[in-house]
């Protein structure tokens, strides 16, 4: 099994070029506690999240980022400040 070496800190630094990152949420497997490769970045400002969408399709630590806006189960009047992404 390949374990991706990115940390919350390295992900935060990578996305921080678009604006202040509040937190990075790593999605992990419940049994192994290993990252699944699907993570979330929360920005201080929603505009930063919008600009960070430009990272979609770019390389990070030799992996390709798939960056999308977070899916929400509630109605939001304004764009959200949270992005989800996959490392493929």
UniProtKB/TrEMBL annotation:
GO molecular function, one term: poly(A) binding
RNA-binding recorded as keyword: yes
Residue ranges constituting the RRM domain according to the UniProt record: 1-72
Residue spans crossing the bilayer: none
Highest rank taxon of the organism: Eukaryota
GO biological process assignments: regulation of mRNA stability
Keywords on record: RNA-binding
Protein name: RRM domain-containing protein
